[in-house]
Amino acid sequence: MELKQVNYSYSNSKKTISDFTATVPTGQILSIIGQNGAGKSTLLKLLLGRLSPDSGTVELDGQPISALSPRKRAAKIAVVSQQHQLYDEMTVKEVVKTGRLPFHSLLATISDEEVRPFLQAVDLADAMDQPLTSLSGGQQQRVWLAAALAQEPQYLFLDEPTTYLDIRYAHDLMALIQELNVKKKMTIIMVLHDINQALKVSDQLWLIKQGKLLKAGTPATMLDEQLLSQAFEVPIKIVKIEKYGPYVIQLAA
Amino acid sequence: MLKERLAYAIVCGAMVITIILALMLGTQFYSLPQLWQALMGQRPAILATIMTFRLPRILAAMVAGGMLATAGAISQAVFRNRLADPTILGVTSAGEFLMLVGGMVLPVFGFQKQLLALIGGLLAFALLANRKTMRQPYQLIIVGVALNFTFMALTQLFTKNIDVSSSLSFNGITWSAVTTLLITGILGLVVALLMAPWANDLKLPDEQLSSIGIPVTAIRLGLLALVVYLSADVTSVVGTIAFIGIIVPNVARYFVGHDYQTILPFSMLSGAWLLLVVDTIGRLVVLPSEISAATIMAVLGGPFLIVLVQRGGAHGIKAG
After folding, report:
1. Interface residue of A65, A72, A76, A86 to substitute, partner B, most B CBs within 10 Å
2. What is the mean predicted confidence (pLDDT) over B152-177?
3. What main location does UniProt list (chain B) (predicted)?
């Protein structure tokens, strides 16, 4: 998956994404970081084909992503959003079954057995028949992850997946994502708010500012106080904690 | 699961009892032995009454009830609004108005009423469905109610000195009208059962559906077309009967859960039963005259709607 000279703006005014060229590293965990309004979510929408660039191309396996039919795209790419809205009650298994829709005819009925393995992967097979709303926030996020896994995608996108989770659930979800990356050889692309979380779980990071790629590289190459201070416009200090490694902290008066 | 099976058993049992009672009761009361003898060919006069008046009426009420309840359930899925029903959104009154105007200015042709009711219904949906009404449940209902009153008033304008109410009711329904309704209605109900997974899909936001490759607009239009077909078909034969499409699916959700693959068949059965009960009561309470099923449903449906709105039903269920 590749972005070549991509430009995008919502109106005629300022460019939201500007001259963006980068390659998503296959089979790795990539996190996109940057301050609010840097263009992270827009970049994600461009990668998903939900937005078309004003100029430049977004390619998937050498083809422009816009050339793929929605069903073909859904069989390669899955998304977990930060928050989900449902218009009526659904059970856990019904939610996960939606992930199997790209593989069936539009009117097909999908069996429980077909989705069980995906629920097992997120350790929620026992909750299959429960209404989604009866689960905790962390469990609900795992159900949506199972639905995305049910698409058996090559690329799994997560848009700030830990925003509404407390520290413990966020940690568990990240551990699960790392496990999936290793076991299923899935390429994972995340937009993350928490720099420390991103540094811990990612193989590669894209640091963006005002729609431009400031730096792409491994977590080690991002451990630069000047670079991060410039990107987030706050004074930043990197501290090393024994056994736990480096941590980025924001200095405030 | 047990609750669901019990609910199905109760509705089926109630249906059988109501059918038998509807055959027995009327201006002339027939006992069970009399009915049996008639069926065995020993009482031709009773058999003639049943075959000419009561049976066609029972079948028409049942199929119409099933169709209206199904149309209501599907339109609630499409509009993501538990109050959305073709009868209170003006779809059926638009159909009735077009039937009236078409009847006046057009030459008679086959399936005229059905086609005109269908076009009227589609016209109402075209006026009703836009981005704003789809997002705001109350706006949809307010615009729908306004449309309903407008078309009803237009119908009254054109029929100031004509009594049309008696031309559209279960009273005196003919076998030919019943047969058409049965064939077209059952066809529509089978299609509804096949389309039930689409109604479930619409519980997810559009953006999510697009990301799993579902053609959202196409399935929404497909379901809306079915809603108009079902409600227009009933309207063309018996006129507008309001509230079945709201009461039945909402009660169904309570008994069989929120999966449209069970809500739809259960709504079909319960809608059939409810309209049969209402029509049977209507033809008994003021003998030798009768009260139309539409009037009784309005009396029952009004309070039900008030309770549903007071309990926040208009917002649908927003989970997560």
Report:
1. A86
2. 76
3. membrane
Contacts of residue B199 in chain A, CB cutoff 8 Å?
A: none
- Kindly list the residues from chain B whose CB atom is less than 8 angstroms away from the CB atom of residue A102: 212-213
Select from B29, B62, B57 the least CA-distant residue to B270: B62
On whether any CB of chain A is under 8 Å from the CB of B197, the answer is yes
pLDDT category at B2 given cuts 50, 70, 90 is: confident
pLDDT tens for A180-189 read 899 888 999 9
Chain B nearest C-alpha distance from A47 (Å): 12
Q: Are residues A81 and A176 in the same domain?
A: yes
Q: What is the pTM of this model?
A: 0.85
Model pLDDT for residues B247-305, shown as the tens digit of each residue: 999 999 989 989 999 999 999 999 999 999 999 999 998 878 888 898 999 898 888 88
A157 and A174 co-located in one domain: yes
The closest alpha carbon to A211, from A27, A56, A63, A29, belongs to A56
What is chain A's alpha carbon radius of gyration, rounded to the nearest angstrom?
19
Clarify whether residues A166 and A215 are in a common domain.
Answer: yes
Same domain, A105 and A184: yes
Going by the DSSP 8-state scheme, the letter that residue A78 receives in this structure is: E
Contact at CB, A83 and B320, closer than 8 angstroms: yes
Work out how many domains chain A is built from and give that number.
2
- Please list the ranges in chain A whose pLDDT falls under 70: 12, 253
Q: Are residues A169 and A234 in the same domain?
A: no
Provide, rounded to the nearest whole percent, the portion of chain B with pLDDT above 70.
Answer: 94
Q: Interface pTM (ipTM) of the complex?
A: 0.81
Mutate to test the interface with B, among A85, A87, A140, A155 (most CBs of B within 10 A): A87
Compute the CA torsion angle A221, A222, A225, A226 (nearest 10 deg): 90
Q: Which residue has the higher pLDDT, A79 or B83?
A: A79
Cβ–Cβ gap A81/B201 under 8 Å: no
All structural domains of chain B, each given as residue ranges with its CATH number in brackets, are: 53-311 (1.10.3470.10)
The domain that holds A16 is classified in CATH as: 3.40.50.300
Question: Structural domain of residue A191, as residue ranges?
Answer: 2-222
**Both structure tokens of B48:** 């003639």
Helix (H, G, I), strand (E, B), or coil: what is residue B320?
coil
From B213, B261, B317, residue closest to A88, measured CB to CB: B317
B contacts of A75 (beta carbons < 8 Å):
213
**Do residue A52 and residue A176 come from a single domain?**
yes
Please state, in angstroms and rounded to a whole number, the distance separating the CA atoms of residues A149 and A127.
17
Same domain, A43 and A161: yes
Residue B318 pLDDT > 80: no
